[in-house]
Amino acid sequence: MTTAHPAYAQLRQVTPIAAVMLENNPGMMTLDGTNTWILRAPGREECVVVDPGDADEDHLLRVAAVGPVALTLITHRHGDHTGGVERFAALTGSPVRSVDPRFRRHTDAGLPDGELIEEVGLAIRVLRTPGHTKDSTSFVIEGEGSVLTGDTILGRGTTVLDASDGDLGDYLASLRALIDLGSGRAALPGHGPELPDLQVVAQQYLSHREERLDQVRAALEVLGADAGPRAVVEHVYSDVDQSLWPVAEQSVRVQLEYLRR
To answer: Which Pfam families does the record match to this protein (predicted)?
Structure first.
């Protein structure tokens, strides 16, 4: 029987190239946990790891054991994706590449948009997709066509934009860039289950964001142009469980910044 999501502490093959090890760190922001992706070309022993996860020794040891690891890539800076970088680099000796230089190990290389990374029989295209965070990056597995989306696209629910450096304008542009990749590409997210068609879900995300923007605009007409995030949340999200309002407030703050430029 094929193993399905969620499956902790085991390597689950998702596509001919991509397998996932789900970290046991579930939560409001991580859903079932962080997906650590292991990419391996058919017939090759070495692999590329995307997002080693948090500083969870058991998880890091399990991921390191599937190696040898030729390269580690980071989708974005959040600790549930990067907390284990230092330990993982020590365990594997793998160079770690990221947009944010704080997480680079054994290399000074970043992740320039459009670069084709050719490693251990794999061809991985870098697609910068800022918005969730400024450094957010997706990776296109050339040939197979699947896309590792980090937290730009999740396996379920919607993405919260980081209030410190998230940007809605960037995020809308990133969603359009993912849509432009075309149909039929599997989405391999940072959290939640894989999705069969990235274009479909990215279009749903874009439509949802545009609807929310319209709701915020309408709220400002009622509340006044200077209304704060909390007032807008209480108006727009009145039908949502109030335990989720702090997360909604973070999203509204980013939306207001976008509308008030």
So the answer is: Lactamase_B (PF00753), WHD_BLACT (PF17778)
